[in-house]
Specification:
The structure is a homotetramer.
Chain A (H helix, E strand, L loop, with lengths): L2 H10 L2 H15 L5 E5 L12 E5 L13 E2 L11 E4 L6 H6 L6 E4 L9 H8 L6 H4 L3 E2 L2 H9 L3 E3 L3 H15 L8 E7 L14 H4 L4 E2 L8 H12 L5 E7 L6 E8 L6 H12 L5 E3 L17 E7 L5 E8 L3 H16 L15
Chain lengths: 357, 357, 357, 357
């Protein structure tokens, strides 16, 4: 497997997740060997000069086969590196990033820098924030919404999967004052891969196949991230109802969002606003009126497909939004963000089409 | 396979669904042979005398193996028959039942008699009601809610699967004035078997496995049935938001219900009301506080498991309710209703426990 | 959940497996509390007097809900108990059974007593046999093949799932000298539940869904058990080729067996022999000629469905055999064996029909 | 979706299958509109000049969205076209290809030209061959085996999925006289997508999920194709035992092959021969000794992963081979063949990596 094909594989198929989930078991074996160099796929895409990218937390994934040039962080000559993806577990990332040279551009895939309010971080993650100064310069990496800020960012906090699928349709509607801020109800359904590769009974085939259940009702850690994004758009505190469900699907995520339109607003108004917001975007696709987004449509790709439907109750609307939780919901958006930060074409390495059937 | 084991198989595993779905292709081959006799399992349960039950629409299911005594309706001596399950397709049932002797007790599994308002039937099913007089004597077969009426009924309309999972938790709360009637939002997730055995591209393995999508948004035919049941409980017209989702699961159904509590009402009030309503019921089970119902808990059984959770938004509650769509959502409840109508123990033939894993 | 429904649930759904798999984690918490009393379902079946059955290794499964009367082995008054199912892990069972009163009838579901040759046990399980004297009195519990011996047995070793599905079709053909002993090739496919509920990465939904692979090629621990049974039938050492595959299925198992017929033997000869062998059996079903056994046909039931097909290569035959690995392949056959040992109707508690769809 | 991304989507994800399976329903609506032009992805790969490729039988796939320039065959100016993929149903292709200009290079994905012996075609497909003269110039498109012949071919018959997975490991071993020709036993397991998108009851989710069964025992239409390839390699008629199984998997295929080694041959000899045969190949990968091929390893990619294992029976070997039935087993190999025919880099458009998880 050549280096050239490595990058696209790495980002296109969401292996950040695998990297991340392996960390806990791997750490003991490879203590201190948590750094990997790799080159951008220079065959299929032509950035003007080669960029040297490190992946923090990639150690041990599939051994030397995929990731040949592993070195320990402490042995790394960071002058060789232009940018870093940080794939370390939640709670361990703040201190490590704090110690990195300021010359590096960083996309962090953990949750450690997603919440601007460090007291919220402490409340939801149960530990003190260890890099509050660094937090101030973080840009939240919801690419289509914050592209301009990402362009000049040094440290980007890559969004969670649920928050990505929810904010993409809601932020433009809130900004345009088209929907009420109260009683936004989100019923989300996720594939299992978001839970990582850790060996937990809850994620066994026998526990997941042929069934569904709600989990983390009102208490899922993505709640404050969702509310932060929506509140920013509203310039007003928004509290949402958010209920995720775990279902028998390796990858994929749908958020079904129930909301009240502002007085006088119609479904067509919502549709037009989303159309205007995303018609020039490559990865966020508003479907034709009446066409239902399906997770199959986006599997293995960086797309987010959305649509808006009239509810049976007058004045209400239903939005459905689908992504691949491992791509647009994780590594795909991370690469998209890095492309923006480095000034490369935003779709570099992301041209993979959905895999269907 | 003895007659004795037939009944339990028939009802325990939801084969009504298979029966029903086979009708369209079978009809041509077996025109006029749509009647089957079978005996209740007298070994495991002891009704005082044997009851003779017919199944209208069972022809051709698995041929002579399971259903040996098939005869055409026109050749049937109905004096031999005490009761009938009617498993014919929607739209064909009204005329057939109209022609049956009035001495028969009937449980109809189609949707043809579920809507009391025949203009609603015409609106949602696109054809005139052909037995409006008969409609007036129909009792809606939500057993736990309408048991007394079912006891003396001659013709019971067996509820749909979604309406069963939704009305069981909501009716007692509405009757007790504990929840607001407005903005009841129902996000439902169903396995594929509810769609029948018809060969449709939409239900192919390749179209269903590893994905999810909403369907019939606001337009699913179970909407008027749900609203009829809730409005009856409220003595006031209730309009609901109902969005079903199709997911990769053979059997099973979860309804996640988002609602506003009446002023001053707490989650504990809802819990207590459900406890009082169902503590003496065998098949509707309110779980311990905080325990999440899972479709796995009820697979292959006649149970409905429910629970109520506080929402993050003050004053709101979340209810989840799970059933096996082919058992409590179809043939299991049909048998439960017949047991009530015949004066037998209500759980006769329904002692099957969930199949897990 | 009443005691009456407990037994059928327990055996009908293969929860022995769950019991067994929980042992390792449970043991620490409940050291010494590994005994449970339960009563046979006296409602649906009527043994002449109540039998008191213990389950060794059931502690902690779902706590008091299912198994209310847990007591430690050391505190058990075994004069209260007539029979015991032993569901302890491989390697721990020999010593425990050795210490039990000889008045007890025992069905052991572990592999600890399946191999008559204790040196084979040591070779495949990597430890010395700790109860070689006890081994001599063990009867191997392949019910249809060894029923007479089981009737008078005190200690029955319940067969493994693969060996059950393979020996049932092959033993009668070998005994009748209809097939060659050389080059018996078995390609088996199993659902995941056989691997237990232990939290192993290999059994995660993401690792199992939508894929297949061979495992334990030539080295699976069921090999010596299969060869022992076939060699016994042949009065001659038989070595088989056995390759199991793990596939995305919770429960179910198919063995596809490729063999050479003895000179002059025809497919019809094989068919007739199997017909004679099993026509009076309730749980082993030879299908009509040409009908393909499917794991769906036996899911959740104690049946084994088999059939025999001509191969394209002259003189060869193909046999397929399907069981539910958790029922006929584990707890169902265990109960069947106990019924035989106690003189009860052999199908007591086993009348569950397959769950399809 | 730009034209540039079209080709990679088209071939990388096996949509030929979808194209093919849609034909029957589409034909009536689009009678005569069965031709599509498309351009090779000139961004990611750089053939020296643009090649104009037609897809016969692509009409109606997803309408104008993907395939904008559809024209009827009769209206096509073939002087605009360099090459054609023919994706028409079995039995209809011979006449259509006969009518095409001889200047076109053609890869046919149907079975119509795979069997060199037209009497075999008639026997297995039940109709006379309608282009026997054309058959004589056909090259069988098993790329790694017949690359030199494909280079100069005008009409290539693209192999079936089962034959691809079986011939790739066996042909080199047969040619090197390392295995016996008798009693080659192939137990194959396939995902459902190979059956196409036709709405058949057998392929419903409810019929496929959570189960397995053998189908087409000894009579599958891929048998003569397999035997033709192996017999060619042997210069001697080979008859195989071939039993396919249908399992719950959208895409993916494993062939488990049981064989006898020639006298004196060892497993290491087989391994070395496969190593020599494929070490310079990009898409056929012999795994490290002892590593088990998994369909997950190749999902969504053009790879074939193989390995060889010692059997427990002396002198025997077990080979497992996995492919994605829609890629290396269909459209991927078709594109690989066209690349060879046109003199392009063989991996053009095929750099997609496996999608896992």
């Amino acid at each position: 497997m050549s280096t050239a094909s490595f990058t696209s594989n790495f980002f296109g198929t969401g292996c950040f997740w695998k990297v991340e989930s392996r960390i806990s078991t791997v750490k003991k074996q490879n203590e201190g060997k948590m750094f990997v160099k790799c080159a951008v796929n220079t065959k299929t895409q032509k950035p003007e000069k080669a960029v040297r990218i490190g992946v923090l937390g990639a150690s041990g994934y599939t051994g030397s086969e995929d990731l040949p040039d592993m070195v320990a962080i402490k042995d790394t000559n960071f002058s060789d590196v232009d940018a870093v993806f940080c794939c370390l577990p939640h709670g361990t990332t703040q201190e490590i990033i704090k110690a990195l040279p300021r010359s590096l551009k960083i996309v962090d895939l953990s949750a450690d820098f997603r919440l601007r309010d460090i007291s919220e971080y402490e409340e939801w993650y149960g530990q003190a924030h260890r890099a509050p100064d660094l937090q101030k310069e973080v840009v939240y990496g919801l690419t289509e919404v914050l592209r301009e800020e990402i362009k000049s960012a040094r440290l980007v906090a890559n969004p969670g999967c649920y928050p990505t699928s929810i904010q993409l349709p809601l932020v433009p509607l809130i900004k345009a004052n088209l929907i009420e801020y109260r009683n936004i109800i989100i019923d989300a359904k996720s594939g299992v891969s978001g839970a990582g590769r850790g060996a937990k009974e809850a994620n066994l085939y026998t526990e997941i196949a042929e069934g569904i259940y709600s989990y983390g009702i009102t208490r899922h850690r993505h709640v404050p991230e969702i509310e932060q994004g929506l509140s920013d758009a509203a310039n007003s505190k928004i509290t949402v109802s958010f209920t995720p469900h775990l279902m028998p699907m390796i990858r994929g995520m749908q958020s079904t969002i129930y909301l009240e339109m502002a007085p006088g607003v119609t479904i067509e108004d919502l549709y037009q606003q989303l159309k205007i917001s995303y018609e020039d975007e490559e990865f966020v696709v508003l479907l034709e009126r009446g066409v239902v987004p399906r997770t199959h449509n986006v599997r293995g790709s960086n797309y987010c497909f959305i649509n808006v439907f009239p509810d049976r109750i007058p004045g209400r609307a239903i939005i459905t939004s689908v992504i691949d939780n491992l791509v647009k919901g994780a590594s795909g958006q991370a690469l998209q963000n890095l492309n923006v930060m480095m000034g490369y074409p935003e779709n570099t390495g992301l041209l993979y089409q959905p895999l269907f059937p």
